[in-house]
Amino acid sequence: MKKLPLKPKFLVGIAIVALALVYMIYAGVSQSAVYFVTPSELKAAPKAGKAYRLGGMVEKGSVSWKPATLDLSFRISDGQANVPVRHTGTPPDLFGEGRGAVVEGRWTNDGYFHATQILAKHSEEYKAPHDAASPGYQELMKSLRTDQK
Amino acid sequence: MIPEIGYGMVIVAFLLAGYGAVAAGVGGRTGRTALVESAQHAALGVFALVTCALLLLAYAFLTFDFSLRYVAMNTNLATPYYYRLTAVWGALEGSIVLWAWMVALYTLIIVLRHRHNAREFYPWVLTVMLSVLAFFLLVMAVPAPPFERITPAPMNGRGLNPLLEDSGMITHPVALYLGFTGLTVPFAFAIAALATGRVGDRWITLTRRWAITAWYFLSLGLLIGGWWSYHVLGWGGYWAWDPVENAAFMPWLTATAFLHSVMIQERRRMLKLWNIGLVILTFSLTLFGTFLTRSGVIASVHAFTQGSIGMFFLAFLSIVVLTSLGLLAWRWEALSAEGELDSVVSRESAFLLNNVLLVAATFTVFFGTVFPLLSEAVRGVKVSVGAPFFNQVNIPVFLGLIFLMGVGPLIAWRRASRDNLRRNFVWPVIIGAASAGLFFGLGVRSTIAIISLALTVFVAVTIAVDYLRALRARRRMGEALLPAMGGLLVRHNRRYGGFVIHLGILVIAVGVTGSQAWSLHREATLQRGESVELAGYKFQFDNLSSREAGNHFLVESTFKVTNGKAGTRELRPAKKFYPQEQSPIAHVDYHLGLVDDLYLVLGDFARDGSQATVKVQVNRMVSWIWIGGFILTLGAILAILPERGERRKTA
Q1: Hey, are the CB atoms on B392 and A89 less than 8 Å from each other?
Q2: Where residue A50 falls among pLDDT bands split at 50, 70, 90?
Q3: A123, B26, B160, B284: most buried, per Cβ within 10 A?
Q4: Looking at the 3D structure of chain A, how many domains does it have?
Q5: Residue A62, in any domain of the structure
Q6: In 3D, which of A51, A44, A48, A111 has the Cα closest to residue A75?
Q7: Cross-strand partners of B612
Q8: How many degrees, rounded to 5, is the angle at CA B284 between CA B282 and CA B290?
Q9: Which of A10, A33, A137 lies closest to B383 in CB terms?
Q10: Quick one: pLDDT at residue B646?
Q11: A31 with A51: CB under 8 angstroms?
């Protein structure tokens, strides 16, 4: 018979470590798996309390941000369906109407998605180089300057 | 002209590298030294050409040559010169140039250092290095051309991603790539060992310092990446288990395993197959990481340009893996172990377990990273696992590794006697257990934190026990205290370098534990003059002002921080508006402390300056991570110095 590379007791030890690892991975996955869904998919079969990652476009005109209470609400849409989302906290820098966003959280029985995290995304497509002459930037700078003494 | 010259240099370098790879291989096989020498000249030529290409790209950036698409995309007239220089490797195409240049540089060093002292491996090492170079030059020629012309050339460029305008981003890729490319060298030697059938210890001895150097740069790259994430991205963390981070972390784990397992081969002539396997795995993981992050198969928060480059890396990875497996099968008989493991309670088995755990951690990280792909392929649903998964599975593994860090270096080879165990571990265990009680008494209630801190103390005491014992022996020989202390470090630099690195890792572990357990944060909207309290600190919103700052516009808030005892401190978190970006970018302001970091992020503000929404964080013990990095650096330097014994042999 061919000689084993290691004595049996070591192989048993390694097997135990491997089994423990498999168990930990299994437990880890079942506890922290997050399903990625689109608004249509979520609308089709919403399960309250289940962890989701919801991805889509922030619908134009849907964002409401109340600094005093840190309440942020908006709708995420994929063109066919939209899902109301609520979140407590400042919208991230890249967040904006008409842009892509992925929110992580849970669907609630009250008919909205409670987001614990917002991952705003860089737009993927190429943006034409525009310089300081672009109206948006100039306007912002002007308004910022005049607003403050 | 620059695009054409640059492109020409890339093509010529590619052909030279391809020729050299073949020539060296044929020369090695047939023993014709003239061919090997010719390959050596090719290697020098490739180095010269890649160096020129890199300099040419830097020149194009410095002179605002927007006829190059890459320059136009990553710089504009307002970019200051130092960021124009670092923009050279600020995006995909340029980072490949830097990568190729480093491989070429390492090839040059191999030519200089190992031409004579590694004669038997040399041709094959050249073949592997030049093949890797040829691959990167192919990438530069086809899927990611840095010298591509854009017509008509724009008047102004788009500008560098503002998040990259930071000193961390200047150094992070350099360190990381020095690590990645450095790992190519042990891989080249491993393949050479297989090709020549000399799979003994020689290739390991030759590459030991290469491996430690590469490992160190990889560690440094990871740490700087963490620092960048911490002080630029404004989420208050340093590690997010993002696919891009994991891609760099996996080779680090297997390289760490390799650094430890070679010691068993050197000492006991075991694990030959394992060691070669680890090196191949490590190198493959560096390629896999690049494939993963550049191909777009896994979504990451890091915005990288994507394209066909992923397929190139996948194809090259397949070639590397298949060739390696073929060679392993060919040399199977020669790779069997000469020694055997005797006892479970021995240094060998501590190192073996260390390796099993490190590979287990690698597998976990791999599994979690590709999980979305797996689940989509198998079950048709997109499921991802986030940071909780990685933490949950890896924490026990890492705690086990810390424990072994204390056991491994002190336990006896072959079979530890009762006496050996008592001599080395009674005090560490007692003090470690006592410290657990102490931490509990001090109010630490997190079980993981207590275990982690107590293990850290245990390991620190084992290191102290070892050092003090050696010191006492020298003192008995009549040496003065200070010369004895220094002499020990220098004369046994490999051993004590390793210990110092372990100390650095321990300090990092304390930082990670503390920051996970005790950091606090809250968010609030304040009117001017109002304040918010957190962890005994009072943060008062004083003012909001705006001004132009170089290439961007800055809206800056002023916060006064008091904590009752020490004086006041002012922090100025801001938002930066770049003309080329659609969104503002938060500029974090922070005060680093040994225990408490004060960390402010401006979230939102009223344009009249009367109101600001701010994220306030008191992050605990994060500084220990950076301090650990410095200690690790000292240890690495000590370990990389030539060994005393080695020097005597060659002299």
Answers
A1: no
A2: confident
A3: B160
A4: 1
A5: yes
A6: A111
A7: B526, B605
A8: 110
A9: A33
A10: 44
A11: no
Q: Half-sphere exposure of residue B510, counting CA atoms within 13 Å on the CB side?
A: 23
Residue type for B566, please? A
Residues B280, B264: Cα–Cα separation, whole Å: 18
- Residue B522: enclosing H or E segment and its boundaries? strand B520-527
**CB pair distance less than 8 Å for A32 and B584:** no
Residue A79 placed within a domain:
yes
State whether A17 and B158 contact (CB < 8 Å). no
Q: Which of B70, B158, B521, B582 to mutate to test the interface with A (most CBs of A within 10 A)?
A: B582
- B609·A6 Cβ contact <8 A: no
Low pLDDT (below 70) residues in chain B: 295-307, 566, 644-651
Nearest to A96 among B341, B525, B583 (CB): B583
Residues of chain B positioned with their CB less than 8 A from the CB of A122: 303
pLDDT at B645: 52
Q: CA B56: distance to chain centroid? A: 28
Contact partners, residue B110, CB within 8 Å, separation at least 6: B125, B126, B129, B185, B188
Q: Closest residue of B to A25, CA-based?
A: B393
Tokens matching residue B345? 């309670």
Q: Is residue A99 part of a domain?
A: no
Contact B525 A9 (CB under 8 A): no
Q: Give the global pTM.
A: 0.92
> What does each C-alpha distance from B12 to B7, B53, B104, B146 come to in angstroms?
9, 11, 14, 15
**Residue A3 in this model has a pLDDT that exceeds 90:** no
Q: Model ipTM?
A: 0.80
**Residue B380: left if φ>0, alpha if ψ -120 to 50, beta else—which one?**
left
Which is nearest to B339 in space by CA: B412, B268, B414? Answer: B268
- Asked if residue A114 belongs to a domain, the reply is no
Q: Is the pLDDT of residue A135 over 70?
A: no
Instruction: Assess contact for B158 and A127: CB atoms under 8 A.
Output: yes
How many alpha carbons lie under 13 Å from residue B621 in its C-beta half-sphere?
Answer: 17
Please name the residue that has the structure tokens 């220089």: B85
Cis amide prior to B152 (ω within 30 degrees): yes
Instruction: Locate all alpha helices (DSSP H) within B380-417, ordered by sequence.
Output: 387-407
